[in-house]
Design brief:
The strands form 2 sheets. This protein has a 9-stranded mixed beta sheet with strand order 2-1-3-4-12-11-10-7-8, with helices on both faces. It has a 3-stranded mixed beta sheet with strand order 5-6-9. With about 240 residues, it is an alpha/beta fold.
């Protein structure tokens, strides 16, 4: 029997349109480096612009995929392709902010047979599932309640956290109701019960958050979720 040894170098695709002025993008670098140092591994990450992703071949060779903040992306289909590739191939996946929003769009289109599922920021029609927040969360923090026995609760080691946001959109409550019985499940909510975290229960590691947990690294506080992400990458 062949025993797989933990990886010492982790190749991670950061899917999004890099902006050197983006605080979130700089925070991602810090969060990955911090988590890698704690775990004693090397995080070798590449930025993949959405316009450069045209097929699954562009993602072959990466141990993990992180869809980063930055909506509207220059090429929506590139983002959706990366999410679908991770979902269908069992590649460890993390999504934050817009990454959370587009995880829901990808799942709606390709699993729930809603080909017109769209984001209010860029689309129109009857299947807008990502809608404006009644109270925008740009620059705000919020308490998030984590469901037990989930990837995210295991990473944080507790059931209640406070995290930072920088967004104006989230998933509609109507679409969340339609997720009942699906593999994509809500695993974290705010105190009002609105979805803030989703995970794919049938996947080795697939977590997306509306909040930007990576920003904690800017205050020299390593992100527990990024550490959990790299732990999963190391052994898969």
């Amino acid at each position: 029997m062949t025993i797989s040894l933990p990886k010492s170098t982790l190749r991670i695709a950061l899917v999004g349109d890099y902006n050197h002025e983006s605080v979130a993008h700089d925070a991602i670098h810090l969060a990955l480096d911090d988590a890698a140092a704690v775990l004693g591994v090397t995080a070798d990450y590449d930025w993949l612009a959405t316009e450069e992703i045209n097929s699954g071949e562009d993602l072959v060779g990466y141990d993990a995929i992180w869809v980063v903040p930055g909506s509207p992306y220059k090429k929506t289909e590139g983002v959706l392709l990366a999410i679908r590739y991770a979902r269908e191939h069992g590649v460890p996946f993390l999504g934050t902010c817009a990454g959370f929003q587009y995880v829901l769009i990808e799942y709606a289109r390709h699993v729930m047979e809603m080909p017109d599922a769209a984001h209010a920021e860029t689309g129109s029609g009857s299947d807008i599932i990502i809608t404006p927040l009644s109270c925008p969360l740009a620059g705000k923090s919020e308490v998030v309640l984590l469901h037990p026995d989930t990837q995210i609760s295991k990473a944080y080691g507790k059931s209640e956290i406070t995290e930072h946001y920088n967004c104006h959109y989230s998933v509609s409550t109507e679409f969340i109701a339609r997720l009942a019985g699906q593999d994509l499940v809500v695993t974290g909510t705010n105190k009002a019960g609105e979805a803030r975290v989703v995970e794919l229960s049938s996947h080795p590691y697939f977590v997306a958050t509306l909040f930007q947990h990576e920003r904690s690294s800017l205050d020299k506080r390593p992100s527990p979720l990024v550490q959990g992400f790299l732990k999963a990458v190391r052994v898969l």
